Amino acid sequence: MEGKVAVVTGATRGCGRGIAVELGAAGATVYVTGRTTRESASPMKRAETIEETAELVTAAGGHGIAVRCDFTVVADVEALRDKVAADHGRIDVLIDDVWGGDLFVEFNKPLWESDLQMALGVVRNGLDTHLIALHTLLPLVVAAKGLVIEVTDGDEDDYPYGVGVPYHLVKSGVRAIARVLGKDLEPHGVVGMGVTPGFLRSEMMLEHFKVTEENWREAEDPHYALSETPRYLGRAVAHLAGDPDVGRYRGQTLASWTLMRHYGFSDVDGSRPDWGRWYSEVVVPGVDLATVDVADYR
């Protein structure tokens, strides 16, 4: 990706950071966008910053550029667009990973018993932001005949019990956006699609399970043995961005494990976690974990 220009929304942490770093490792110039900077914290009140991500991109071999951007604020996104346009005049790869809905999600609660403002907050942060980003930035992707990838949770629309209507609406909505982009952008020479991670070892998930990247195998959830780092999805995206035949995936939402099978990449520890196969062969049928060798799925 030498000479290519990428924009990653929601790149402060998690998948966004992992994707930005791997695009940098492939040689890209990466605009790292999000709300948390060293000078200003977002409502998430997290320690990770866009400057840290940009530095990781540069250390990996690319050129990281941190740009603070709140994707609920149209003027912020327009300023981002104007900066990229002035610097390069195009976006070769747009990764739409903005989220910010964690503060509003009420799991395991029926919609009618939930807080309406919380529900609307999930949708505002998880769907409105994607529409604002796409509406504002897509002209620069069209100018490059580039690639736009929507990042979601899950590769199909079956309802996972317990996540609630707002969360499911957002994540299935992002997959719907990817399907439509696949069709709408094709006449313009642009590929639109979606991706999803498996069981993620993001900063927030590690804290949720009270483990670290050093001892994550000790998490109380035994299925976390099949977890993956955000860099795993990042490597999937980097392969997509460098694939001259990426158009064969337009409109689809593909999982990290599916793309691992296609491209043969590994996670940072050299393993190849296959959450999809684990879920269908172990989780769904309720197989006794004592009878399963985790290594067969990594």
TrEMBL record:
Coiled coil: none annotated. Pfam families: adh_short. InterPro entries: NAD(P)-bd_dom_sf, SDR_fam. Signal peptide: none annotated. SUPFAM superfamilies: NAD(P)-binding Rossmann-fold domains (SSF51735). It comes from the Bacteria. This is SDR family oxidoreductase.
